[in-house]
Structure formats: C-alpha cells, structure tokens
Design brief:
Length: 295
C-alpha cells in the first residue's frame, strides 16, 4: 500500500481525480464539507467508518458551515443523518460505523457560556436555544436521539458501548453526579457484516463487553478534547482487515487516521476546519513515517 499522505482542499482533490481514484490507494485528508465530499466518493469503497462529530451546543469552532451550533436540535440531528447517509453509501455492503457522541445540557435560556479555568475553550458567545419540550437544566439525550434517528434512516443499531473515563474532567456541579462516560455506538449497513470477535477479547479471553475503560488522552497542539487511540484501536481490529479503508468524515486531530495506518489499514478523512487539517496532517504524517520505517 502506498504510504504518502495526500492533503488537499476538496476542489483540488477532485480536480486531480477526474480520471477516477481508489480509496485503497494512498491515505488522503481532504478539507471540505463532509456531505459534499462523501457525495463524490465511489460507492462501496470503504470498509468501516470510525468518527466523533462535533457535539451539539458545546463548542464554537468559529468556521462557517460548522456542525454543532445549529439553531435547533432537530437541525443538528438532520445534518448528521445526511452526513451518515453519505457514509452508508460509501461503505461496502458488510461495512460498519462506530460513532462516538457526547451529550449536553439545555442552556437554560442563556445565549453564552463562561470560560473555565481548566478548559478556556469552553467559552461561547452564542448558544442554541433550549429545544422545545425540554426545561432548563435538562440533559438533552443527544446520543440516543441521534442513534434512533440513524436507525430510522436505515442503519442497523447493533451495540451501545459505554466509554467509561477513569480520569474524567472534574465538574463543579453540586446537584448531580459528575458525568464520566460517553457513548460509542456500533451500526452496520446490512444485517450481515464484518465483525471479528476474536480480534479483541476481554479478560480471560471472554467476549468483549459493552463497557470500555479508556483514559482520555490529550494531544499536543490540540486545544479541544481528542478521540483517544485506545478507543479507536478495538474498532479497527474488530471491523477491518489489513488493507481495508477506514473513513472519518470528522477527522479533527486525526486519531482515526493515525490508528488505522499504524494497523496497516488505508484511510480517507474529511475535515472542514483548515487549522485542524494541519494538525491532523502532522499526526497522520507521523503514523505514515512510523509505518514506513517498520516496513
């Protein structure tokens, strides 16, 4: 497998690929809107998608077209359903989607959020209004709302993995427990799909359980929560084989791409934010270099 990372804007990438392209070739990182890029990829060309889209109402990335600051929860869910419709088209018939998504609380009518000493990027000058039917301080339930929306759109909802964070970030709240988990959903495109249960086993060689203890892990230069490699690795091993293409339409800091390449898989990533494209390119480039040296 060629190991030179291709990095380009969507316009430049598809201009060069007028004669067609194969996702199984060199790994690629494209800057652009996920829905638009996915619509131009060959159908049935990736084996697995492992991704963590921006969470709703939690961060302002300051870039036009960003996901997560839609004026309503329904608009956010609809946007992600559209993106993952594109993912389903690009996956092989036995392909899978691993989706990490976090929850949020209603804004309580506030249109801003104050910074936090331990997390200064938490500050926001704008916040979506409280969804209709919810009250101030309500937990929104975003993960399950999205899971059911994707299920209704045609995905097979196969598992809800609880990502337990032993080193979760402390919270100053006094009227509820500190949240120390997120969800990692497993979806499949078809009723029958690639899942290699023996590739990852639990203690005493038992079948893998649905609660995974994975420490959060910061990445240098990233001023936002990153997808830890230890959360991605089991997904790669369970649902892909060497040489298969792993897709990530919300590449962020590049964790999925780095892990995929380290395990001998191909990778195709999409990221809207040019600053994150540079960050991911460095990280994935390091993985490419390590893979080449080990060959």
């Amino acid at each position: 497998m060629a190991q030179r990372l291709k990095i380009a804007t969507a316009a430049a990438f598809f201009k060069r690929a007028r004669g067609g392209f194969d996702l199984a070739g060199s790994p690629a990182l494209v800057q652009g809107d996920s829905s638009k890029v996915l619509a131009r990829l060959p159908p049935g060309s990736a084996q697995c998608c492992i991704t963590s889209p921006p969470y709703w109402s939690l961060r302002d990335y300051g870039i036009a077209g960003q996901v997560g600051l839609e004026a309503s929860l329904d608009a956010y869910l609809a946007k992600l359903v559209t993106v993952f419709d594109g993912v389903r088209r690009v996956l092989k018939s036995d392909g899978t989607l691993w989706l990490n998504i976090g929850d949020s609380y209603t804004s309580g009518g506030r249109t801003w959020r104050a910074p936090d000493k331990k997390n200064p990027v938490r500050a926001m000058s704008v916040r979506p209004p409280t969804p209709q039917g919810l009250k101030p301080k309500d937990l929104v339930g975003v993960p399950w709302r999205l899971a059911f929306a994707l299920q209704a759109a045609g995905w097979y909802l196969r598992a809800d993995v609880v990502w337990n964070k032993p080193n979760c970030q402390p919270e100053s709240v006094k009227d509820r427990p500190t949240r120390s988990h997120e969800y990692l959903f497993l979806f499949s495109k078809s009723e029958q799909y690639l899942y290699q249960a023996d590739a990852v086993r639990g203690p005493n060689a038992r079948n893998l359980r649905t609660v995974w203890d994975v420490h959060t892990q910061p990445y240098r230069d990233a001023h936002f929560a990153t997808f830890p490699p230890a959360l991605v690795e089991p997904c790669v091993q369970l649902c892909t084989r060497e040489g298969d293409v792993v897709l990530d339409p919300f590449t962020g800091s590049g964790t999925t791409g780095a892990v995929a390449l380290q395990h001998g898989r191909g990778f195709f990533g999409v990221e809207l934010n040019p600053a994150y494209v540079k960050l991911a390119a460095r990280r994935i480039g390091e993985a490419v270099k390590k893979r080449r040296l080990a060959a």
